[in-house]
Amino acid sequence: MTKKGSRLLVAAVGLGVSSLTQAYDLPAVNLGFTSFLDGAPPAGPGWYAQQYVQFYRNGRLKNANGGDLLLPTARGLEKAEVEANIGLTQVLYQSDQPLLLGGKWGMNLMLPYAGFDLDPKDNFAISANGGNLGDLLIGPYLQWDPIMGPNGPRFVQRVEFQLIFPTGSYDANDALNVGSNYFSFNPYWAATAFLAECGQRF
């Protein structure tokens, strides 16, 4: 390959890396861990622990147009696939002490960890971080007792002030990282309204 040809290849790969990195950036917002019954209190005051586990197999990375992402390798362009083993350990403390407007204080601690397997491994464009531990989340919160109807709860709510610390594994040269490399503050309000009568009490 001539010098001019090798410069063009480096430039093309550089442009590809830039566009790939932008395509897989997530917004800096709280994307949430739960859906229904979010905002509901635990069974009572005390300590709680919960483990989330997710496995992704043969997941294909997509480009901006929804097609298969092709990565440049020594053999030419190849489809990009990623496998991920993801876990999230959550430890929570709920007090029985009202703090503000009847809301009882609590503390939420979360630590994610993940392992990525990117294929093809010998691509020139993106790489995956080999570290496993993610960013530590510390979330003080206020939890209100359910508003009850004649047959059960009608409305539950919680306000949390999440602090996410950049403790996770991060390398600026890798496109897939477990850690984010920056501190973030994500306050949120979670609530669930029961529009139909519940058959049992909380």
Fold topology:
Elements: H1 3-23, E1 46-60, E2 70-73, E3 76-79, E4 81-100, E5 103-119, E6 136-143, E7 147-149, E8 152-165, E9 184-193
Antiparallel strand pairs: 1-4, 2-3, 4-5, 5-6, 6-8, 7-8, 8-9
Task: Estimate nothing, just give the exact number of structural domains.
Answer: 1
What share of the residues does DSSP label as strand, in percent? over 45%
Order of helices and strands: HEEEEEEEEE
Rg is 22 Å
Shape: elongated
Counting H and I runs of at least 4 residues, what is the number of helices? 1
Percent helix: 10-25%
Arithmetic mean of pLDDT: 78
Distance between the termini: 72 Å
Low-pLDDT windows of residues: 1-30
Q: Supply the helix-strand structural class.
A: mainly beta
State the total count of DSSP E strands.
Answer: 9
Describe the overall structure.
The protein has one domain. The protein has 1 helix and 9 strands, in the order αβββββββββ. The chain has one helix spanning 3-23, and strands spanning 46-60, 70-73, 76-79, 81-100, 103-119, 136-143, 147-149, 152-165, 184-193. The strands form 2 sheets. Strands 1, 4, 5, 6, 7, 8 and 9 form a 7-stranded antiparallel beta sheet that branches. It has a two-stranded antiparallel sheet with strand order 2-3. It starts with a helix and ends in a 9-residue tail after the last strand.
